[in-house]
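Changelog note: in this version the structure field was regenerated for every chain. One regenerated record is shown below for reference.
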Amino acid sequence: MRVSALRRKRLSGRLIIAAVAMVTVSIPAMADAFGSAHYDPKSDQLIVTMLYEGTNPSHHFSIQWGPCRKMFTQLHEPPHKVIEVEIVDDQGNDAATKSYTKVVRVPLAGMSCRPSSVVLRTQPNITISLDIP
């Protein structure tokens, strides 16, 4: 009787290890993140390095602009403008098997929300802020 109890424990331990291994292999990328980000005045663009994981390097990132908002920080000062920009990964649910980087250029020509702080956002809610003239 003692031997069968030991065998059951070993078997249940092996099943748990196998289940954890199967879940670990199929975990999708948790999030895209930002590497470096800066404003390039010559090209009037934000140059953003995206860090992401997946099964392939062919992820494409699209830009979704939010509204320009005026933020009041002090009563006797002019409002500060803020605009949010979401950078969306077209393969956001790709399994996280290898790390990649990609440079994304965000053109600002014609953007009327200036000067402002641009808040770049990616899922799930990772942000970085840059001031632009």
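Spot check on this record: The mean pLDDT is 81. The helical segments are 2-25.
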